[in-house]
Amino acid sequence: MKRATRAVVAVLATTATLSFVVQPVQAGGKDQTLRSAAPRDLRIGTAVAGGGHHVDQPYPDPFPNDKPYRQVLAKEFNSASPENQMKWEFIHPERNKYNFGPADAIVRFARDNGQAVRGHTLLWHSQNPAWLNEGTFTEAELRKILKDHITKVVGRYKGKIHQWDVANEIFNENGEYRQENIFIRELGPGIVADAFRWAHQADPKAQLFLNDYGVEWPGVKVDAYETLAKQLLAARVPLHGFASQAHLSMRYGAPDQLAGVLQRFDNLGLKTAITELDVRMDLPEGGVPTAEQLATQATYYKTVLDACLAVDDCNSFTIWGFTDKYSWVPVFFPSEGAATVMWEDFTKKPAYYALRDTLAAARGHGHGHGHGHH
Ligand code: 9MR
Predict the structure, then answer these.
(1) What is the pLDDT of residues 141-155, one digit of tens each?
(2) Which of 53, 139, 165, 253 is deepest in the core (most CB within 10 A)?
(3) Is the CB of 318 under 6 A from ligand 1?
(4) Do the bridges between strand 241-244 and strand 271-282 make them parallel or antiparallel, or are there none, so unpaired?
């Protein structure tokens, strides 16, 4: 976030002009938004709701149907991450059939609203289609399936994706390669490097990331990523970044060592990012958080943002949904919730203001002269 480079001055000038056009509300005053308050070199993103857990909920598909939701999405954010719409089971439901419509719609919306897109994800153990999980393939076939998928999906959005989560959650809590990942299990861990190479061939400008949860504190999982990152870089594999998802629970402390973790990857020359931040809490009887809980939640959000702001090349900060209306949290953790920065009616919680004020202060203190975005 801090370094200035000549090469990006032109890019920044373009970005500045663009954001003036699409964003009449400038930094300062009560009309400030997250994106208008943010330093120019920091993308502020959200997951775009659809697919996954939403499919079983009693509401229409959020992104295409909820107009007020789309308005807040456009106004507050300058980065968008398809929550499920680019995952294998969604975008590649049958072996010879791709379903690009919903992802295309998000990419178009992002372009129309001056937003970057984070692609999610290409190599993961979860949310893979039955034809893949249950098929019987030779090693050569499986390898070709992965290569074709990456080539096709990344290639379709060439030039339109800022960052791709190429490899998602590839290590378990002990820092071992996850054997649930069909590609790693059947083809060996070397497939990770190939996934990065194929993604780079398909879109040479996209920044390619490793992405995981449980890396907010130092430990064996972070060590495993650091070792892998060094190996990949030594082998000249096109790896560009390391991301912390940051799915947090107030049952555990705030991640006060996160800046140090990100710095270890920054030291390797990698970009870093926060990709899926939310902060869940145990809901009291009646389901309404106390003022104290909301204040604590705000400090967790701020801790994570401060960590990103403290590290030079942390250029992308994404929350995993902005409204409790569509959060994955209560569906997966029944006694917990209220994890996002806005209530169901899009009114703002203390956590929203903590983010906005912290962004505005960072911008005021001369951030915004760091690396640009292509
Ligand atoms: O938010 C996503 C939800 O809609 C899906 O049902 C769920 C299924 O695994 O995945 C959620 O997103 C996950 C993300 O893709 C990877 N990191 C953890 C996220 C929360 O589970």
Answers:
(1) 999 999 999 999 999
(2) 165
(3) no
(4) parallel
All structural domains of the chain with their residue ranges: 3-21+32-364
pLDDT tens digits, residue range 84-109?
999 999 999 999 999 999 999 999 99
Could you tell me whether strands 247-249 and 207-212 are parallel, antiparallel, or unpaired per DSSP bridges?
unpaired
Residue having the nearest C-alpha atom to atom 5 of ligand 1: 52
Ligand 1 atom closest to the CA of 332, numbered from 1: 21
Task: Determine the 3-state secondary structure of 84 from DSSP.
Answer: coil
Alpha helices (H) along the chain:
9-22, 34-37, 62-65, 67-76, 88-91, 101-112, 130-133, 139-156, 182-187, 191-202, 220-234, 258-266, 291-310, 329-332, 350-364
Q: What percent of the chain has pLDDT over 70?
A: 90
For residue 347, give the DSSP letter: P
Closest by CA position to 1, among listed 262, 320, 180? 262
Q: Which two tokens stand for residue 11?
A: 């890019």
Q: Does the 3-21+32-364 domain belong in CATH 3.20.20.80?
A: yes
pLDDT in tens, 252-285: 999 999 999 999 999 999 999 999 999 999 999 9
